[in-house]
């Protein structure tokens, strides 16, 4: 049993084949398929999710992605990029065996980021929010099945990215006019909205323990995510409040996975030492007093994606996270 390390989502540059080779080689047991938004529209987190969705149309407007009747050229480009990504993954992962994590934008952030046909966030319309959620659930199941077929040795898992979850929980999402904020979502609403995604993947054969929600914003509501049935939660150490520590302890004691964002991503290309990264992890883990038994449930990561970085420092950061994981292992065993 040992602490792991991994990335989160986005990666710098435009060379997907190189990025996939890197994650497969540098992240044993915790490899993932990175997003490369530097390739342009459709390669970002929202574009990838809408490229995976097949039952709803979307177009890219000056203000961002918007729901439309039928697919647009921008959405078709996003779909083509995703297909190309999967082709590259299949080629690079020949003979690969081990954990392989896929990432898609989560349903709440997707609804907050995508606009209704007449403008304003889809989150303002319960019907559109449900439609996006259900479309994403199908897309998630299809993506997992496709990758499992392409890379038969992989233990596929799925991460939903929810950077706007905290704002949704506190009523921080603005209306179309920008003059008011949408109502805050309570625990039961969030649990009820996320649970169908976990259930859909379970029905498709993916164990819920292989699902994860990542949020690098304050107030992700860890208890709500656990209650929704996800197998793991990813958080930014700097955004944790004291109350979150109790939720993290319960999560780990319940056998779920914690992705602990110990590496700040701003300012870009700034490399902390492995000791500093380990110290940040231990500042969260030591007070829990759970000992070495939780080591294999902890994965050290950057706080957020690394798209703004350059490739060499980003690669070095992953390696330092690996060194930090070894230090945390030793310290937890004392």
Automatic annotation (TrEMBL):
The family database entries (SUPFAM superfamilies) matched by this protein are listed as: UROD/MetE-like
Q: Which InterPro entries match?
A: UROD/MetE-like_sf
Name the UniProt record assigns to this protein: Methionine synthase
